[in-house]
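Hey, can you fold this one?
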Amino acid sequence: MMGGRLWNSAASAALVSLLIVFGFCISSCFTDATRIHADFIVSSCQATTFRCLCVDSLSPYASVIRDSPMELARSALSVSLSGARSAAAAVSKLAAEETLAPREAAAVRDCMSTTGDSVDELQRSLEAMGYPKGRGEAAVGLRLDDIQTWVSAALTDEDTCMDGIGGGRSTGGVVKVAIRRQIVNVAQLTSNALALINALNSASP
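Sure. Predicted structure:
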């Protein structure tokens, strides 16, 4: 009986801790988005997997996004591209380390190649969406299928990098942590951007 009470107490404590963490996440989303047009960003980010990251990363662009799904998707792509460039630079710097074991060096070089491809695909997608402005949204609408394909390919490249670094014994713990810290964040940003582009395409006539 005593054991059951202790278990229930532990389970309750764990549940409370989980709710506190979840509540903090939701609270931080709304706190960071308390500015003009923030409601549009918050509601749109419900379509993404990483909602808090979506709101946090796009809230600084609320004055540009306003209530435009197109500007929302452009901004999400821009944020993802910026993250991909930073990740690619970090991986390239790590690849230049002479202290890496042969297997580690090979895995990092592969990751450098896939992150470079991701940058190219995101750059192409952003250009196709007319960023900087001035190329016309009608033309963008005709290319949304291509953009979805390119962003999806970028996400696949990022996942491939993480799989290569995390799989088997090719890389040591320090290398895994250093690269995953960079790639996980950009993969989540890219996933969110893809979700917003999918929503934009679904809303197109």
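The radius of gyration is 20 Å. Let me know if you want another pass with a different chain boundary.
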